[in-house]
Write a structure and sequence with these properties.
The model has no long low-confidence stretch (mean pLDDT 94). The chain is an all-beta fold and 114 residues long. It is globular, with a radius of gyration of 13 Å. It has no helices and eleven strands.
Length: 114
Amino acid sequence: QVKLVESGGDSVHPGESLTLTCVFGSQFKLNDMSWYRQAPGKQREFVARIAGDGLTNYADSVKGRFTISREPARNIMYLQMNALKTEDTAVYYCNAIRSAINYWGQGTQVTVSS
């Protein structure tokens, strides 16, 4: 059973921090996994990726502020978000690719406003 379930979204003020969690099915344990986000009226965009071997890469807009990590033994991926900005407001999605197929979670809302 395919499972990608995000949680942790909330409403916060600029400068605050938030950690998102993605619980995934064991079939993705060795796959590259990513976080994407979609703001109202905009296309879904890449945020961060963590490879099966732990290598990471980030969108320029979040580099230095966000950290992606995973606990393979627990099938959990995290996105630690610091120094949040209003432009980080979006629905955040967990993504995994397996056999050239993209799998998505249902998303979790992050709102940053003063």
